[in-house]
Design brief:
Blueprint: E1 2-7, H1 11-24, E2 28-34, H2 37-47, E3 51-55, E4 76-81, H3 85-93, E5 97-100, H4 105-116, H5 121-137, E6 142-147, E7 150-155, E8 159-165, E9 168-173, E10 178-181, H6 185-191, E11 198-202, E12 205-208, E13 212-216, E14 221-224, E15 229-231, H7 237-246
Parallel strand pairs: 1-2, 1-3, 3-4, 4-5
Antiparallel strand pairs: 6-7, 8-9, 8-12, 9-10, 11-12, 13-14, 14-15
Length: 251
């Protein structure tokens, strides 16, 4: 019997994965579930699992940052993600197990089998370091947007802006498409944090500087190419104008 934990900020995703494991992977026993990284770290210390099913996109800390809180990684990890294509390639290159949401039973069973036949702890730690480096250094070219019927992949350079709507975000593309996604804006801010052309001028917007049509300094408003009118927070005005100078845009 392989003992395991599930760490994912979405309760429905946790319960769905736990049910699939119970039905199709009887060799795995789920000890507990966590909704965030700090809670997950505590459960790992408490239960000492052999396997952790770990989501990547979580508020406050992402799945990779969990590794910063644990000195000795004496458990295997299966990442469960709806992430971009480049990240999936990084997993493959680093020989790490991952499951793409929505999780398929056959993929789950194969990942569990690999975990049972896992290599030494030293090898696991080395593979994790390679994976982290790949994740940090690669530039995201596409991101996947979770939809009711699967995943919608979009080019990052085609995103004009992202608009918060409670627990949802509307992704506005250059071709005029507007895609409503059940992720908070903070999720996209974290995903695109290594892209200097994305800036959050207001709590409700994340914009691509390449698609700015007009900036009205007196009114602190930004007009995007798709006609979206974005407010600029007063405390971010200096930072925003400095970015425009870096982009050699007239202000």
């Amino acid at each position: 019997m392989l003992t395991a934990l599930i760490i994912d900020d979405e309760e429905r995703a946790r319960n769905s994965l736990a049910a699939a494991i119970q039905s199709f992977c009887p060799e795995v026993k789920i000890l507990a579930q966590a909704s965030n990284v700090p809670e997950g770290v505590e459960l790992i210390k408490q239960h000492q699992p052999q396997l952790v099913f770990l989501d990547i996109e979580m508020p406050e800390y992402n799945g990779f940052e969990l590794l910063n809180f644990i000195e000795d990684i004496n458990f295997d990890i299966i990442f469960v993600t709806a992430y971009s294509q480049y990240a999936i390639r990084a997993f493959e290159v680093s020989a790490m197990d991952y499951l793409l949401k929505p999780v398929e039973v056959s993929a789950l069973q194969n990942a569990v089998k690999k975990a049972i036949d896992k290599q030494s702890i030293t090898t696991i730690t080395k593979r994790l370091e390679i994976l982290k480096d790949s994740f940090i250094n690669e530039e995201i070219k596409k991101i996947s947007l979770p939809m009711a019927d699967g995943l919608h992949f979009v080019e990052v350079n085609e995103i004009v802006c992202l608009e918060a709507d409670g627990a949802y975000t509307t992704v506005c593309l250059h071709n005029g498409a507007r895609i409503l996604v059940s992720k908070k804006l903070k999720f996209f801010e974290d995903v695109l944090s290594n892209r200097p052309n994305f800036f959050r001028p207001h709590r409700s917007f994340l914009i691509n500087l390449n698609f700015i049509k007009k900036y009205t300094r007196a009114e602190s408003t930004i007009l995007m190419d798709n006609q979206s009118q974005v407010s600029l927070s007063r405390d971010l005005k200096g930072q925003f104008e400095a970015l425009l100078k870096d982009y050699r845009l007239s202000i």
